[in-house]
Predict the structure of Integrase catalytic domain-containing protein.
Amino acid sequence: MVLLEATCINGLYYIQAFPQTVSPQAYLGIRTTAQLWHDRLCHPSNSTTLQIVKNYSLPCTSLTLDTCHNCLMAKSHRLPFVNSSSVSSFPLELVHSDVWGPSPIVSNNGFRYYVIFIDDFSRFTWIYFLKCKSDVLHVFTRFKAQVENLFETSIKTLRTDGGTEYKPITNAFPQLVHQTSCPYTPQQNGVSERKHRHIIELALSIMSNANIPTTQWDEIFSSIVYIINCLPSHNSAIPYITLFNKQPNYSLLRILGCACFPYTRPYNANKLDLRALTCVFIGYSTTQKGYRCLHIPTNKIYVSRHVQFDELSFPFKTSSSSIASVEQSSSPQNQSIPLSIFRSLLVQECSDAVQHFHSSHYDGPVTVPEVQPNITQAHSPVSVPITSHQASAQPSSSSDSARNELHEPTRSIPSDRNSPESSPIAAHSESLVSSPDSTNIPSPTAPQPLISQQSASQHPMITRTRDNTRKPRHFSDFVAHLTTIDHEPRTFTQANAHIEWRLAMSTEIDALAANNTWILVPPPSNQTIIGCKWVYRIKRRSDGSIDRYKARLVAKGYNQQEGIDYFDTFSPVVRPTTIRVVLSIAVSHKWLIRQLDVNNAFLHGDLTERVYMSQPPGFLDSTRPNHVCLLSKSLYGLKQSPRAWFHKLSSTLISLGFFESQYDPSLFISHAHNHITMVLVYVDDIIITGSNPLLVSSHIAHLHTSFSLKDLGDLNFFLGIQITRTPTSIHLSQSKYIHDILVKANMVHAKHSPSPMSTSISLSNEDSAPFDNPQLFRSIIGALQYATLTRPDITFAVNKVSQFMQHPIENHWTAVKRILRFLCGTIKHGLHVQAASNLDINAYCDADWAGCPVDRRSTTGFCIYLGKNLISWSAKKQPTISRSSTEAEYRALAVTCAELLWARYLLQELRVIPSKPPTIWCDNIGATFLASNPMFHARTKHIEIDYHFCRERIINKEIQVRFISSSDQIADVLTKPLAISRFNYLCNKLTVTLPTTA
């Protein structure tokens, strides 16, 4: 049998590699192309298609292959990255930037992000730490101003990844070329991405070597960047030398995390105190000639040049007990997670973008901003490392020099509010509180701490777990760092990682159990079962410090159905004007003013409907896990809860001899034994005052028997309003609230404005481009509306800008920022309430005729005084167009009359009798005549009839209207923007002042 045939030529056998194939007869007469074979062979590559056609002699009339769109769509892939050949020729020609974060944990300074700016020419880097990404614009503005001033040249091009945090920079600096990488292509911003990795790798090495707590990551990153700028970059050039043309002094460097001993004699209380403290070296000061030294017991950082080091000792590493004590002395959010977890979380975030970036792009160094306390914006950048001519490596022996260069601690690291000895939950106990005897409500033991070693809980209420597994302790710590104790958690998981919030939840469950809020029953088949969730709030004092942590169990009332599990929902709250009236009377008579807070107020309301709710998250009854809660008391979140609570409180007060005011249902009055007692109610916040302090105390004691009250003593902080009292006056201000608004708008350090609105700008809807963040606009306006409770000087300006909330434009936002700048300069101003022997009522009313350029409507403004105290004011656009200034003033007069009569009737209930009828002061003679006489019929017959009621009151001598010159018209400030001098004069008349001292 012949297996193979070959031809012998010159002793060599030639074998045909591919046997000749004979074209089948079926192929004859068929016109085929290479493109047809490409489709038949299921779209292989072009080379493979041609190889098959040629090697196997397939019939083909054309070997040309067209572009196959199907292949392009199905086989699309990323193209290889080629190293960039472009090189900058001078500093700031190109600056790379990127934001890193959020960090797995929040630093001790409250930072979650950092942003770097890298000079492409020298690869010198600046770093800023951020609390939120929105700070990038503010940081870049400062960075740009500083480096352009330093190098006397401007930044030509900024290269970023195109993140939304950089969009405001493009709008703010149109002359700047902003290059962005393609979407989902971080490799094009490889310089910044590789820098992130370089910083993190060196920082983790240092933190591992010295066992530095991970909450110090910003301090370490700052120092690492400081060092990197002194290390050779990818081209062996040192960025610091390239940029500044001078040598850094390496002899000043010490091992980060080692023990150090700063000279502290200037701070000693007596001459026998030690002259130095044992601290931890955590970095280099970049705004002072010294080292940064952390004193662990006090959590303070000292900056000093007179420091001695022990580079063989590492305080965080020497003993586990010392580390444990540090962690216990810090707040829970500042406890460190294991470095291995921290390392994996950090490296993972920057590895994806770097893995495709060629290693030749490795570049070095960066400069770091100095960490400053109590600053919400990013740090200032550090310009240069310490050079040999700037500082000495050896401490000086001169005490005078020490006094001059040893600085106060720059900041304090947050410490725990409760020491382990004083806190009942300092150790991770399994049960936070004792179990009450109750068969109807699950026991209020808080969720168990997520630790690896769990003690057996005998309590029937335990946190639900899956297959009885528990997460390791370090995962609990990691979750704890996602939400700091200075911030309110959004979910139960975040709150459960902190002891403070677990204790707060236990307190809430305790209150529910003591109040018999529900009983557990099997779920009904024909009834809606609503859910519930935890809401967390940090209660603060008037100075902004933390008072307590509050966890509230809230029912998901949005699932309720009207007519089935709820009916009426309305519940009144006290009017701000009523509060000011009562305070004016109390101050004038020097009465004691007490403040009460009802604990879990809504839980006291009785329900008449049958409402079923699921068991609280984290507090599932292990013996009855499928049961639901049948509510017998109202709960926060239910639609009828406010009404049920108010009905319960009002019934109790009426039983104690009070009656409900006809003019404000949240004001309760008692006339007993020739003494008066007044109670103001705003949901669960209560003010009580009266002529007899013993009677006031008696009423408080009676309320204690019905409700769980917190007696807050003398009135000092009510509804976000700070109250400062002297023997003869009260000052009402909202400085803390206004500061929060400024923080939200990023205008805490804005330039001050002398008035809230310019007289040269007329707002309309057609002046400029639409504002790009209407949600922020509406949010700030809503916040400013509440600020007008104690700031009548901004009432008109706020009312004016609020007319454009639907479609705000840039000019409207500019007007809002002017209001904020005015508040920034007058943040401590507020309403002054002083004692007065005369409690007559006087009102001022004014109107700006056709003042609105959009619809030509007029603006009504009025202010009402009780004695010398401003109790009510308003600035509001009139509902219809007025045909004349007299008509506009007449409408304003009627609105003022209605408010004035209400105040008069309220005072009659309080048995405060003015010496003369209330007076309205108007600066329009025609309006005063029209109010007293039915004249000008042809020009007034179209005015709505209800506006004429003030004429009847004048005839009955219930009120009187008097003319006043326009120069003395106080309400003028409530109708239009004014010149600065005129505005300041009228603000004094509005009694908006700084607080006075006793």
